[in-house]
Design brief:
Rossmann fold; 2 domains; 11-stranded mixed beta sheet; 10 helices; 11 strands; about 20% strand
């Protein structure tokens, strides 16, 4: 993979860009995050060189090869430098990075190489069969990145307000706890107005529903709900001891649907959650709660791979 970047020891916030309107929203959010963190912003773009088969080349066009790759690389670098210049004119400390390869691979490799504090990406929220077959760069990065990933949507344009209300879903696992403590420092500086809402969503197992309602269903839900409330109370007390203002809620239902609904109803500024990083066929058919939330949420979503 070819890399172009200016070395710097400063902490970094990476933002992936394909120069689209959605990417522009991500850049705006990344600028604010970098300023809050005292970090240097780095614009990251990936060039994917098409195969050299004749059917991919239009008549009279330059076929893929070293010359073609260099032409594309120079064009992409020019676009990156143009965006960086506009940001520098606003007093923003920014670098550029150009990689050859798939966008998700380039972004994740760069995040690991620089020990980035976070990656910011735009997502278009594909749905249905198109999403199943194509996925998205954002969701692949969510699944693989070694640092927190902030995914923003086109509708998040102009909403870069202070993060005062943050919804924090949890399944009480060690991975979820690690994710929370990795994401919270990125919310700094916290103020007296900053509020965390811990959320646990639980489902009635299929064994209780496949054959219709049975008497133990109600007891299971009650016991599960009470156990969730006890765990949430313990987590809230721990976070309160760290200086956070914390509310909590436990609800029965599909986790991704509950998270998206609670975020909308409570008008939160951000969702911060962990992801288990499924892969292969299991990921293809099951996906993950985090990825469904990234796809469907009406606000930015920060994910941390557990």
């Amino acid at each position: 993979m070819e890399r172009i970047a200016t070395p710097s020891p400063s902490p970094r916030i990476l933002v992936g860009t394909d120069f689209s309107p959605t990417a522009a929203v991500a850049v705006d959010w990344a600028v604010r995050l970098a300023q809050r963190q005292g970090a240097r912003l780095e614009l990251v773009h990936a060039v994917t060189v098409p195969p050299s088969a004749p059917e991919y080349v239009s008549p009279g066009a330059l076929p893929p090869g070293p010359i073609f790759t260099e032409e594309v690389r120079q064009a992409a670098l020019g676009r990156l430098e143009t965006e960086a210049f506009a940001l520098r004119e606003k007093g923003i400390d920014v670098e550029v990075y150009l990689g050859i390869g798939s966008p998700s691979m380039v972004i994740c490799d760069r995040a690991e190489e620089t020990a980035a504090r976070a990656v910011v990406l735009g997502t278009r929220g594909l749905t249905g069969l198109r999403h199943l077959l194509l996925g998205s760069t954002a969701e692949r990065v969510v699944n693989k990145a070694p640092c927190p990933v902030l995914s923003v949507h086109p509708d998040d344009q102009g909403h870069q307000r202070p993060l005062r209300t943050v919804l924090v879903p949890t399944d009480f696992s060690a991975a979820a706890e690690r994710a929370i403590h990795a994401a919270l420092p990125l919310l700094a500086p916290q103020t007296a107005e900053t509020r965390l809402i811990l959320l646990h969503a639980f489902n009635l197992p299929i064994e209780y529903t496949a054959y219709g309602p049975i008497p133990t269903s109600l007891h299971y839900l009650q016991d599960t709900g009470l156990d969730a409330e006890r765990h949430l109370q313990e987590m809230a007390e721990k976070l309160a001891g760290e200086g956070w203002t914390v509310d909590w809620v436990a609800r029965e239902g599909d986790p991704s649907a509950v998270i998206v609904e609670e975020a909308k109803n409570r008008q939160v500024d951000l969702i911060a959650m962990g992801t288990r990083g499924l892969s292969g066929l299991r990921h293809l058919f099951l996906g993950s709660t985090a990825e469904r939330v990234v796809q469907q949420a009406g606000c930015p979503v920060m994910t941390v791979r557990g």
